[in-house]
Amino acid sequence: MPPVAKKVPLERAHHGDTVVDEYAWLLKKDDPDTIAYLEAENAYTQEMTGHLQDLQESIFKEIKGRTLETDLSVPTRKGAWWYYSRTEEGKQYGIQCRVAADGDSPPQLEPGTSLPGEQVILDGNQLAGDSPFFSMGTSSISPDGTRLAYSTDFSGDERFTLRFKDLETGELLKDEIPGVFYGGAWSADGSTFFYTTVDEAWRPYRIHRHTLGSTDDVVVHQEDDERFWVGIGLTRSQRYLVLTSGSKITSEVRVLDAATPEGEFAVVRPRQSGVEYGLEHAADRFLILHNDGAVNFELATAPIDDPGSWTPLIAHRDDTRLLDVDAFKDYISVHFRRDGLTGVRILPGDGGEPYEISFPEPLYDVAPTGNAEFETSLLRLSYTSMVTPPSVYDYDLRSRELILLKQRAVLGGYDPADYEQFREWATAPDGTRVPISIVVRKDTNRPAPTLLYGYGSYESSIDPYFSVARLSLLDRGFVFAIAHVRGGGEMGRRWYEDGKLTRKKNSFTDFVASARHLKAGGWSGEIIARGGSAGGLLVGAVANLAPEEFAGIVAEVPFVDALNTILDPSLPLTVTEWDEWGDPLHDPEVYAYMKTYSPYENVDGRPYPPILATTSLNDTRVLYHEPAKWMARLRAVAQGGPFLLKTEMGAGHGGRSGRYDAWREEAFALSWILDRVGVTE
């Protein structure tokens, strides 16, 4: 029998309306009743999925068998060293290494072997020890290559301890700083490291300056506006420290010469509500990517001594969203998005005509990555599609050639020619065309069972991507599809704006329209919906909106108690989220709108499909109580199911940390998905 959660009605009045929350007691993480309830849920889920153990084990072995367990990355040049990471069979975590640079071509490495002179910078397996959870928040080499700053988390709460290592001697320095956030930046001489800390709401709000050997760290910036996060980085030229304060809709940048770490950061341009901008250093000028009067952003230049004076370099286009800019000594690369696909544009430094790099597949995702050097004629790119495993290219600016350096090996006889990918377009109720990316084995009989994935928030795009684990579905006759719903960024900034605040429901109706399109077009029979975090809100809302369209729903760390969470400023991240969802605490219109779609609030007595929700006790982004309350209300009110909750009792937002643990977690989810449509071994 499923656990039955006790009801302790808690009434809250907002804008003349009363909210009754019978399961608010589950917020008490340290209450023995809460832990007992979560453990009972885990036991019930184990009981209800016990018959899938053989299938889970088969899928785990398939994932493992297709993965080259002893592998390594393509080396990246920075200064006098080539940096790379490698994995070893049987070990959960990666190992970071480097070798001295000899020439401009990456050294030829063979998996399972080490080069003469290899230096192990960090071994994640040694750092993790026997801990059931391990994660790193930063790993940053000083500009001169002599020191390493790195931070570790052993619980999943994303509060890291920062340490420093002398790479010339291999010794750890005495400096140790607990409670830091992700990221950080070195000064030019490597004597000083800047890091970030969070407030009680888990908002990064302070930048600190730490001088090695000192215990008197200085707060160089504190952000008092609760809507804003702060972060710090170093330009590729290593000339300037860049301190950014940003909300969901506004940003403000400060710069400081990295050679003078004790100096004062200077504001580039004071914050203006709704204006976002970022800064990159390009030799004798700054590059500014901004949306001031340019909804899809434009690229401008600015003098070093007057960075707030912007002159357009790439004008705004309605059909092209500029994503990022990378400056090098002799050229500039611009990462952009158009027609639901990413691309790269090159601006030669000699005044030559700008051009775009072309790629042969109809669906793909490409981005500059790992370009640490400022003076280079090669642009490193990552590339993948739904049938092409992750690949690393160097693009030669002189010959305009793409040079394949590495493609992730997929063992077990994988042949991309056995699969095909498609782009379909669904029509939403308001007439908007919604792109859908699809991959399927060529020999699959259609209509076929389908896993439909979606996210649709924060302008985050779920671009076409390859997955080894997904092959276990495709080879069992599944279709896999991504619904690129509004609220994401796939079709530009307006696509995002049409799926947020009081237009959020467009995300949900887009997803339902995508499911119906797949069925009407002969692609899909039974459809399983899947989404995580804000994508968990998506599939949770869809469960209320059109439960009859789905044979099952997988909601991972789902944001399903949206209204209660956004009403409570004491919870982590609530105030910073008001620019994304609205402020229901002070705005009755937002309150009324959110109440009509928040999954927890809208569970009713209709039949619901089976639902699997997964969460982690130490998640600091979407707290565990949201899916726990949702499951309790579904069992109390709804028909159908079963409704299952699985809680990792020692992990955070990303679930279990080791790669083998993550594979087992995915095998569990995939076996449940297959079981929903009667596909077994």
TrEMBL record:
Keywords: Hydrolase, Protease, Serine protease. InterPro entries: AB_hydrolase_fold (IPR029058), Pept_S9A_N (IPR023302), Peptidase_S9_cat (IPR001375), Peptidase_S9A (IPR002470), Serine_Peptidase_S9A (IPR051543). Residues 465-677 form the Peptidase S9 prolyl oligopeptidase catalytic domain. Coiled coil: none annotated. It comes from the Bacteria. Transmembrane segments: none annotated. Signal peptide: none annotated. Residues 2-408 form the Peptidase S9A N-terminal domain. Belongs to the peptidase S9A family. This is S9 family peptidase.
